[in-house]
Amino acid sequence: MELRNLGCTEITVSELCFGALPMGPLQANLTVEEGGKLIREALESGINFIDTAQMYQTYNHIAHGLKGFSGDVVVATKSAAHDYQGMENAVQEALKVLNRDVIDIFHLHAARVTPNVFKEREGALKCLLDYKDKGYIRAIGISTHNIKVVEKAAEIQEIDIVYPIINKTGRGILEGTVEDMLAAIEKCDIAGKGLYAMKVLAGGNLIGELLEAIKFGRNIKGMDSISIGMIRKEELELNLKIFNNESITEDMLPKVISTKKLFILERFCKKCGKCIKACPNGAMELGEISVKVNHDICLLCGYCYPVCPEFAIRMV
Ligand code: SF4
Ligand code: SF4
Question: What residue's CA is closest to ligand 2, atom 4?
Answer without folding.
Answer: 272
